[in-house]
């Protein structure tokens, strides 16, 4: 039996390599930023089962293994923090301006907490940020023009907060942005020019009060979903809007639109349209039937008159049709009530001459005849 003696240099090399592999020391500026971020949260709102509770700076944030400390809430690449992701624990506090020291951040997700105050302007200078989700908090203040510095941003969600003011005109500079959700805030003013690669746009539940301007939607060849309901948009919904090439779902309900122009498409991916609860006058637009994939159409509670377009009854793709709460007259086409038809929806609370109560479409009763006569200035013939 004999012992193999390794050269001293080789032993030294193995020891150094093993130690280097095991020990990763987080950049000091990242550690300082994380300490400031945790310090900005009210300690009594950090229960023992939460991610932030495990942030114990006697350990290194980026050094594995994470057995007792830094169990969650952040991710690293090497010695840099790349993701800041709070758990939805109801943390109360603010977001420290020192978040800007985490210059390698790709993702920030602090949603479903109780963070308040202004979003630090310094956050909008993070050069690598791709995802910013601050939804369902209590952030206030305005969205600053400096948001245009987030050149890599792909997802922006600050919905369900208390942001105010107008949308910045610099939004169009976010050329990588595909998803924008600022719903349920206190935003006002018009919709500015939007980023050209946007796919999903949601501004529901604000006080946006302007016309739909073509310049805002120019070059949006990838836009699929538009959610602008519960605002104060006015005027006529222009025909070009529904011709946006990739558009699939549109919700403009609960606004103050007074008209709608529907042009026949060359081709279209439009599947669902909701224009309910506006002030739209005129006749139901027959040209909606020319949209080859349209499956759901809602025009409820407007001021539409005339007859239900027979073209709607012939459209085989249409399976949801809500026309209730208008001043429509006449007899609905019998095809609506055929056993071969599977349309759901409502024709109720109109001025229809006859609507078979055996059909789901007619479960809701029609308007009193006196109201219908008043709407048509006494020119309606009595129901037989």
Automatic annotation (TrEMBL):
GO terms for biological process: defense response; response to other organism. The keyword Transmembrane helix applies. Keywords: Leucine-rich repeat, Membrane, Repeat, Signal, Transmembrane, Transmembrane helix. GO terms for cellular component: membrane. Gene3D superfamilies: Ribonuclease Inhibitor (3.80.10.10). It is found in: Membrane. Residues 1-21 form the signal peptide. Its main location: membrane. Residues 28-63 form the Leucine-rich repeat-containing N-terminal plant-type domain. InterPro entries: Leu-rich_rpt, Leu-rich_rpt_typical-subtyp, LRR_dom_sf, LRR_N_plant-typ, RLP29. It comes from the Eukaryota. The keyword Protein transport does not apply. PANTHER family: LEUCINE-RICH REPEAT (LRR) FAMILY PROTEIN, NON-SPECIFIC SERINE_THREONINE PROTEIN KINASE. This is Leucine-rich repeat-containing protein. It comes from Cynara cardunculus var. scolymus.
């Amino acid at each position: 039996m004999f012992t193999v003696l390794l050269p001293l240099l080789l032993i030294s090399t193995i020891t150094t390599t093993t130690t280097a592999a095991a020990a990763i020391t987080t950049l000091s500026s990242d550690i300082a930023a994380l300490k400031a971020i945790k310090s900005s949260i009210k300690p009594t709102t950090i229960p023992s089962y939460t991610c932030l509770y495990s942030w114990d700076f006697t350990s290194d944030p980026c050094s594995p293994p994470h057995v007792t400390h830094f169990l969650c809430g952040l991710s690293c690449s090497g010695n840099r923090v790349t993701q800041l992701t709070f758990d939805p624990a109801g943390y109360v506090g603010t977001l420290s301006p020192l978040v800007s020291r985490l210059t390698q951040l790709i993702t920030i997700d602090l949603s479903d907490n109780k963070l308040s105050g202004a979003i630090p302007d310094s956050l909008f200078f993070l050069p690598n940020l791709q995802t910013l989700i601050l939804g369902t908090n209590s952030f206030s203040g305005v969205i600053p023009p400096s948001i245009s510095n987030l050149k890599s941003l792909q997802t922006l969600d600050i919905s369900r907060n208390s942001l105010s003011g107008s949308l910045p005109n610099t939004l169009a500079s976010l050329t990588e942005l595909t998803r924008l959700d600022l719903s349920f805030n206190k935003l006002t003013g018009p919709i500015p020019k939007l980023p050209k690669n946007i796919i999903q746009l949601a501004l529901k539940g604000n006080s946006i009060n302007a016309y739909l301007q073509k310049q805002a939607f120019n070059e949006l060849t990838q836009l699929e979903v538009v959610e602008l309901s519960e605002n104060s948009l006015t005027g006529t919904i222009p025909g070009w809007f529904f011709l946006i090439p990739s558009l699939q779902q549109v919700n403009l309900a609960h606004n103050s639109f007074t008209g709608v122009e529907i042009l026949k498409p060359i081709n279209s991916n439009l599947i669902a349209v909701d224009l309910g609860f506006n002030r739209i006058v005129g006749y139901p637009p027959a040209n909606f039937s020319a949209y080859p994939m349209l499956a759901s159409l809602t025009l409820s509670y407007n001021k539409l008159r005339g007859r239900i377009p027979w073209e709607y009854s012939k459209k085989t793709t249409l399976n949801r049709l809500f026309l209730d709460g208008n001043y429509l007259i006449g007899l609905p086409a019998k095809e609506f009530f055929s056993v071969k038809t599977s349309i759901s929806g409502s024709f109720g609370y109109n001025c229809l001459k006859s609507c078979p109560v055996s059909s789901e479409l007619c479960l809701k009763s029609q308007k009193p005849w006196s109201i219908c006569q008043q709407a048509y200035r006494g020119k309606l013939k009595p129901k037989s």
